[in-house]
Amino acid sequence: MAAIYSLYIINKSGGLIFYKDYGSAGRMDTNDSLRVASLWHSMHAISQQLSPVAGCSGIELLEADTFDLHCFQSLTGTKFFVVCEPGTQHMEALLKVIYELYTDYVLKNPFYEMEMPIRCELFDINLSLTVQNERVALLGR
Amino acid sequence: MIGVGKIKQYSNVLDKPLSKGKQEVSLSAFAFLFSELVQYNQTQVDNIAELERRLEDAGYAVGARVLELLCHRDKGNRRETRLLGILSFVHSTVWKVLFGKVADSLEKGTEHEDEYMISEKELLVNRFISIPKDMGTFNCGAFVAGIVRGVLDSAGFPAVVTAHFVPMEGQQRPRTTILIKFAEEVNRGRGLVGFVPQFPDTTKGVGTTGASLESLDKMFSTLIMHFFLNKADVILLKHPLPLLFLINLPFLLSSQIYTWAHLVHLNME
Questions:
Q1: What is the domain-level CATH number for residue B113?
Q2: Rounded to an integer, what distance in angstroms lies between the CA atom of residue B151 and that of residue B148?
Q3: Which residues in A lie closer than 8 A to residue B58 (C-beta atoms)?
Q4: Which residues does chain A have within 8 Å of residue B33's beta carbon, measured at their own beta carbons?
Q5: pLDDT tens-place string over residues A40-90
Q6: Which domain of life is it from (chain A) (predicted)?
Q7: C-alpha to C-alpha distances, B104 to A32, B62, B119, nearest whole angstrom
Q8: Distance from C-alpha of B158 to C-alpha of A130, rounded to nearest angstrom
Q9: Considering only CB atoms, which chain A residues are within 8 Å of B35?
Q10: End of a domain among B188, B214, B247?
Q11: Of B63, B72, B152, B171, which residue is the least packed, with the fewest Cβ within 10 Å?
Q12: Do A122 and B32 touch (CB under 8 A)?
């Protein structure tokens, strides 16, 4: 069973710019994924405001009965989050790697327009390689 | 003994050799700059062929300069005069300086005699670039093709250079092939147009700086040697000495008429 269910990238205004699901569990149609993205964006913003701690950067991990949601927000406000099996480890590291791929293969691509949906072949290729490696590593653990 | 040689002291700072400086720049900085170059040119054109041409022109300027620099740095102010020589110069020396490695392969075209191909599994400029589907066969390697054209053209081997994606079996990504098609005179000639010897002191001119008679002598002997080795067809020297023409007979008999620009013209005044 796949440990990672799906991956989302949302731009700083809450629009979904990348969505990919892995395996059958937790599959969603386009509308649902858009909804999750904008919902998460708002919840993340609200959590920052509600937090009793000063300088809170928003929710990093949401634990539910059937899934975990790990979120990483870059300095520019782009959010990366994965939905995965409860208790999956090393997701923060994975998100950092995905962020790195984003900066390399998306932002350095002259044909990518900022804040727009990501359609970059090299990003897709390298992302699936990374996720595959992650899966192999998970099986090995 | 190797490694223990004492550092040479130079009395005059001008005698000190120019250091090569740091050989590498940040790949990210380059990638962003190149991306910006493509984006800027994209705003200036309305079709892909035009974009390709503009990138090639940008590369051409780089190539012309790189040739000048490398001839000075690595070859003691000499320039390749043979076709294969200049090709391997591009394939190894130029590639190494620009991309930190030798190009993956240099092949002769199978269909045409006058075509050569430099192939690269992953061209440095294409490392982070995904071409959108609606742009068809566009390749940002056009910039590199321009560099190659700049080098070849400045060395006296005019050619048409293009960049193409070539799908590879068992590989997810196509490789990039730089196709070089030489102009007709290059194929016919034995490098006539390729023969533009550089002086020991090109920037100042021989006469004015009072270069030694010895260097002048050396130059003459090189010229004449090239002439007799059939590497140059015409040598024309303008000099306080009586005007000197050396003309190769088979060349005169050949059908094509060369323009003055094609002749080796050395102005030594």
A1: 3.30.1380.20
A2: 5
A3: none
A4: none
A5: 999 999 999 999 988 888 999 999 999 999 999 999 999 999 999 998 888
A6: Eukaryota
A7: 47, 21, 6
A8: 45
A9: 108-110
A10: B188
A11: B171
A12: no
pLDDT digits (tens, 9 = 90+) for B183-226: 887 766 544 443 444 444 333 333 333 344 455 555 556 655 55
Q: Which range marks the domain in which residue B212 is found? A: 206-267
Contact A110 B173 (CB under 8 A): no
Contact B172 A123 (CB under 8 A): no
Q: A30 at the B interface (CB within 8 A)? A: no
Q: How far apart are CA B269 and CA B259, in angstroms?
A: 22
CA dihedral B222, B94, B101, B54 (to 10 degrees): -170
Inspect the interface and report whether the beta carbons of A109 and B129 lie closer than 8 Å: yes
User: Is the CB of B28 less than 8 angstroms away from the CB of A119?
Assistant: no
Q: Residue B70: what residue type?
A: L
B28·A108 Cβ contact <8 A: yes
Look up residue A21 and give its DSSP letter: E
Crossing angle for the helix pair B48-74 and B142-154, to the nearest 10 degrees: 50
Pick the CATH number of A4-140 from 3.30.930.10, 3.30.450.70, 3.40.640.10, 1.10.10.10: 3.30.450.70
